[in-house]
Specification:
single chain, Cytochrome Bc1 Complex, Chain D, domain 2, about 50% helix, binds heme C
Amino acid sequence: MSTRIRSALLWLAPVLLASPLVAAALQTPSPSNVTLPALKFTAPDAARGAQLGASCAGCHGAGGISKDEAVPSLAGQVSSYTRQQLTAYKAKLLPNETMQNVAARLTDQDMADIAAHFSALVPGPAWKGADAAVRAQGAALYAKGDPARNLIACTVCHGAGGRGSDSLILPSIANLSPAYAEGKLAEYRETVPYAHPSPQAMHAAAQGLTDEELTALAGYLSSLK
Ligand code: HEC
Ligand code: HEC
């Protein structure tokens, strides 16, 4: 069994237990038959990644901590997810043209080294903005979901602190800007992404969330350091 399939099954187990709706969604075939190319690389060199990653600071911020609401931070991101996103940009499976151009210049080894570098950096401080009551609503949904409405708790996949899982390719979502997080959640609610290892996961998780809940969740995520 490939590591990828094993990974998918590993995180599927708790999900299946948690929600029959999610289980059904996960069995839906992916909408795209374009699959993510596998990367070939040897042991990642974070020091080399730091040199290559210096050019990212202009947009993603010094130390990988973004101050621009439209740009995600890379500090503390799990390396498997950074590799996956860069591969997808290079293969033009993700739409952002700037990132497609950035990724086009990177080799497989470059991506692995860059990902190792950013994963070792400490995520930034909380974003200001959402008020305490809104964050508290987000925190409750994040931790418990809403079984009565088939809303699955985010913590099942992203972990209590939002730091994700490298081995399961689950992104760290701590400290995303409120605008970026809300935009992503709205996107996942409407669409299923390209055929990466778990394309249905976020579509299923975001189904049924109201606009108000997206704002609350985004406010909560932005406060996780
Ligand atoms: C000119 C600005 C710019 C530069 C330079 C840039 N990026 Fe980006 N990057 C972006 C934007 C904007 C996004 C968000 C795109 C979106 O919202 O879909 C992004 C997204 C990403 C993502 C996806 C993150 C996620 O959480 O989904 C990764 C990974 C990434 N960039 C890595 C890099 C790396 C590594 C470099 C340097 C080699 C780099 N970027 C250089 C603007 C930039
Ligand atoms: C079944 C597992 C699962 C659950 C439950 C889940 N997620 Fe996710 N999440 C993922 C996966 C896998 C990705 C990466 C998806 C992709 O790249 O298309 C992701 C991506 C994200 C992203 C984008 C991160 C980035 O840097 O671009 C955000 C934000 C997010 N999730 C928030 C949430 C919130 C909030 C909840 C709860 C409502 C939640 N997730 C529940 C698996 C899950």
